């Protein structure tokens, strides 16, 4: 039965009153239903102890927002309230067009099988939530587990609107379940109660969210990116780890600074550290002084253990690594650097945190942090660390690490899926679609990114409701031979249509002009994980590069296309006439098993905002049939 708007609002408010802030669990007969509430508001914030306090968007008053922690098989309902005040539109923009205070949340890496309307992409899957409104993201995580994130998907809002999503593989991998077990077990059996995931055992886990902090206003940033004065993306002043760092340690007022994030550990144990790339721009190096990192998961995909001294974390990527606390018990620095910056900014970063062996700190400080047993199941924090003020660390602790030089492809070829190679990666593709990205200055002096000559713009109406409503141009049968599908693009719908159960390769072709450096681009697939089956320098050529390169690529949802030129142009060897020079490509593959409207875009948020995105229309005739759990407009 359809509820009237006031009664729906009332019942929603009732539900909220019944919840203890962050989350609650119930059962819908088939799944555990876990409910969360995220409120978008504006707060005054200074996370890096600098002299800049910004007025920024936050979730439930927090940056990062509260973690969403669920178990594989759960149904998840996240109610997002937009509690922003409407933005005063500028001269030539109507209140409806002005999206500055509208919002949506994307659950990055969650494949949204049968729930494309919960994917959070403005005008692809929903109309952004207006100030005063709300939207219920309702989805199941039945077939995936690991480390994910959520973030805003409108404009540059994800500069401050992001948080961790953790999907436990099983009850055995959930520390809270383990804590309950520990309560009921004798001392003698406790030591056998390790957490387990993909053949690895560990004693506990921690999460580290990497992000950026600009000493700039978001709306000003958005106007700059689209305006005529654009001259490169502004570099963030700080790199944050779990929302904290120290901008300039020399200038800090110790009474007003929370210092670096402290990650507490105990000696002689193994920890799973989930590292989440919630940056909007840079690819970051990540390392822990004196500790190697054993990668066991990438983007929710289990991999065979691989030992490395550092991670390279592109925007939107996630890793789980194991560390063993076998060093002298003291504080160690956790550090980051900027990678693939074209040499235009220093690689050094002020993003640090502290790995603290707790055995070394006073008993008093130890008892200040709550024991895991006393933590309730749903009011969870990421890490069990509430340092007292006197604990705040304002200086980077001991330990040095060197970030090795950048290498095209990093270690990606060396990673192997835990469950073995996928047969989809060994078959020929049904179709190969080349997406060639260019940036161009327009006649009004502004700059846009284009993919195959089209700079993505929000459609006038939400694509998904057009498809569900059957009011958009008739769904024509897809014929590759038809000229209107040149390179797979359908100008009638503005999308790239794909059939169900196809193997589709996308060649992500980077270009630059001879006067500008080649940039790196972290491409993200919605609704699917993909395999990077090949990559190379310069321009892709189907005859030369059509063959598969890797025989065991991992299934992930972000691929960094590395800048990689194949030729040096000179006066006697001039670049191509159109001025755009191929400077590196990756070929990624999806298997189209998830009908829906899916974004495929550069996860450098400024690039996406400037048009570097396409929409995939996958088996639209099946979207309604598979959409079983959602009913609201
Ligand atoms: C979120 O916003 C709603 C609606 O404005 C309000 O009723 C609720 O108390 C807020 N919840 C939190 C956790 O701030
Ligand atoms: C803030 O600090 C920067 C250097 O970190 C300095 O250039 C600037 O003048 C300071 N601004 C104020 C208002 O103190
Ligand atoms: C609004 O449009 C007019 C006419 O096109 C133009 O002259 C003016 O500069 C625009 N204002 C803004 C703020 O873009
Ligand atoms: C560390 O663990 C090993 C094996 O469990 C044990 O033999 C050793 O004594 C432990 N060392 C410390 C310092 O606790
Ligand atoms: C890290 O691994 C390398 C290679 O296996 C090894 O040489 C090095 O000693 C290890 N470092 C630490 C701190 O364990
Ligand atoms: C830990 O102990 C070592 C010596 O055992 C000491 O040098 C170091 O400062 C201590 N660290 C902390 C954080 O107390
Ligand atoms: C569906 O189409 C009708 C008729 O064009 C229109 O009035 C209605 O708003 C559409 N609904 C949605 C959800 O787009
Ligand atoms: C281009 O020139 C640089 C500097 O001379 C050289 O290091 C590089 O190998 C050249 N690249 C190619 C593809 O020829």
TrEMBL record:
Q: What Pfam families does the database record attribute to this sequence?
A: Cu-oxidase, Cu-oxidase_2, Cu-oxidase_3
Keywords noted in UniProt: Copper, Metal-binding, Oxidoreductase, Signal
Q: Which SUPFAM superfamilies match?
A: Cupredoxins
Instruction: Show which residues constitute the signal peptide.
Output: 1-25
Cite the InterPro entries for this sequence.
Answer: Cu-oxidase-like_N (IPR011707), Cu-oxidase_2nd (IPR001117), Cu-oxidase_C (IPR011706), Cu-oxidase_fam (IPR045087), Cu_oxidase_CS (IPR033138), Cu_oxidase_Cu_BS (IPR002355), Cupredoxin (IPR008972)
The residue ranges of the Plastocyanin-like domain are 40-171, 205-359, 485-620
Q: Which protein family is named in the record?
A: Belongs to the multicopper oxidase family.
What is the designated name of this protein? Multicopper oxidase
Species whose genome carries this gene: Phycomyces blakesleeanus (strain ATCC 8743b / DSM 1359 / FGSC 10004 / NBRC 33097 / NRRL 1555)
